[in-house]
Write a structure and sequence with these properties.
- With 444 residues, the protein is an alpha/beta fold.
- The chain has 15 helices and 9 strands.
- Among the domains are: 106 residues, Up-down Bundle (Four Helix Bundle (Hemerythrin (Met), subunit A)); 198 residues, Rossmann fold, CATH 3.40.50.
- The protein has a 9-stranded mixed sheet with strand order 1-4-3-5-2-6-7-8-9, sandwiched between helices.
- Helix 3 packs across helix 15 and helix 11 runs parallel beside helix 12.
Length: 444
């Protein structure tokens, strides 16, 4: 069976079946809006965080988690009920500040991506299939990439060396990466010779097949897709990334997704350095309806994460998502901070963190690659989250990251809605790139 036929059977028929099911069982518009109630849904927005705020000094990194006041934004009951004191002198107790903040107290604050979480979270009335999400989210890349492929194929009557040279330029322009492109062109040339393909039209299908092969390499799909979970207790995800890549928004969307799957989720506001970061995460917690553990601005991130673990354990949470600061201008400070946070997590929960997820802005192209290389040097990144993939025409960065850094892409942002964070699937990705060709495909 041809590769386009496989993708068509898997994704196009899935969409057709979904649409047929909707026609047979129209949903009641009054049901299933998926909204999460929040007393703060109609609040007025507070003034935006000014970009001209004076830079604050970095908090000292040589101190162990100190006795700073911590606040759980959904804390209820007495301090004794919600906090477990620890005798370890390296991690002192956590006295709760007066004026514990409830879910209705936070004012919307513009996040690091320029988005403002607005009111209660609302899901779309009708669930989209994975295929439709990737098709819609990769529209810009597809329109650019597919048109160039079609133009190339139309200008050649046979597959020769000049054809492959121009194909190389097309792939590089999509930010697939020079190293990955050279490897792919070599494999394409071998495959074309092996199959004795002369018609350039037939090469399009081979290109799509090789994109999937290069992404997975020698790994099985199950080994690189999805997030690792702790079967024996609390699962901890540590998020890293520079400011402005959509880290806060991604954490909020992931919290919503996990909660919708029936998991109890808590957040820890470990980015105590950037102005407004704590308030932004707290606002996402309010909107999604999950607990947020925070300290005051400038506090030790390791102490925040420690309190987050204790709060999560006391509430019987399934997942704790930890935010961190992302200042790359001083790699030594960043490395020290992340190392300290990881030590605290590992000591409290052996085997954690279960994922260290680096958030990258897909619209920055090769700059995202340089960020990934830097973070890979200072911490053990286990997976990539590509935000704003719907906003770029250079979605090939997915393949460059996977192939050159050998780090799998775990999640991708395919739109602005809270439900547009998807588990990365290489087959769905390639379908999104070649959707028009695949849907028009008719087997000979």
């Amino acid at each position: 069976m041809s590769f386009f036929k496989k993708l068509k059977d898997k994704f196009v028929k899935e969409q057709d079946a979904e649409e047929e099911n909707k026609d047979q069982h129209p949903s009641d518009p009054a049901e299933g809006d998926g909204s999460v109630s929040s007393d703060s849904a109609d609040e007025e927005s507070s003034p935006e965080v000014s970009a001209s705020l004076p830079e604050k000094e970095e908090p000292p990194l040589n101190e162990e988690p100190g006795r700073r006041g911590s606040v759980d934004s959904h804390a209820t009951g007495t301090e004794e009920e919600d906090r477990e004191e620890d005798a370890d002198p390296d991690v002192p107790g956590t006295e709760e500040e007066e004026g514990s903040v409830g879910p209705e107290a936070g004012n919307p604050v513009e996040d690091d991506e320029g988005e403002r979480p607005s009111g209660a979270v609302e899901e779309e009335d009708e669930k989209e299939t994975i295929a439709s999400k990737f098709k819609k989210g990769l529209a810009k890349t597809r329109n650019s990439f597919s048109s160039k492929i079609n133009d190339l194929v139309a200008r050649y009557r046979t597959v020769d060396e000049d054809f492959f040279e121009e194909l190389e330029e097309v792939l590089i322009s999509a930010d697939v990466g020079v190293t990955t492109v050279m490897e792919m062109i070599e494999e394409l040339e071998m495959e074309v010779k092996r199959r004795n393909v002369q018609d350039p039209q037939k090469v399009k299908e081979i290109i799509s097949e090789k994109l999937v092969d290069i992404y997975y390499g020698d790994d099985d799909a199950g080994e690189v897709e999805g997030l690792t979970e702790n079967p024996d207790g609390l699962t901890v995800y540590l998020f890293v990334g520079v400011n402005g890549v959509g880290k806060t928004t991604t954490i909020g969307k992931l919290a919503h997704r996990l909660k919708s799957e029936g998991k109890k989720v808590t957040l820890a506001a470990g980015d105590t350095f950037r102005a407004g970061a704590i308030e932004q995460l707290e606002e996402w917690g309010n909107r999604v309806g999950v607990n947020v553990t925070k300290h005051s601005e400038g506090s030790d991130p390791a102490a925040v994460v420690y309190d987050g673990i204790k709060a999560a354990e006391s509430r019987g949470a399934d997942v704790l998502i930890c935010d961190t600061a992302g200042r790359l201008q001083n790699k030594v400070n960043l490395m020290n901070e992340l190392s300290k946070v990881k030590r605290v997590i590992e000591r409290e929960i052996p085997g954690a963190p279960h994922e260290v997820l680096l958030v990258l802005d897909a619209t920055t192209g090769q700059n995202a690659m340089s960020q990934a290389k830097t973070f890979a040097e200072v911490t053990d990144v286990s997976g990539i989250v590509l935000s704003k993939l719907d906003g770029t025409a250079k979605g090939g960065i997915v393949l460059a990251i996977r192939n050159e850094l050998e780090i799998p892409v775990k999640l991708v942002g395919l739109g602005e809605k809270v439900t547009d964070l998807e588990t990365f699937d290489a087959h769905a990705f390639v379908y999104g790139l070649f959707a028009d060709m695949i849907e028009e495909y008719e087997e000979d």
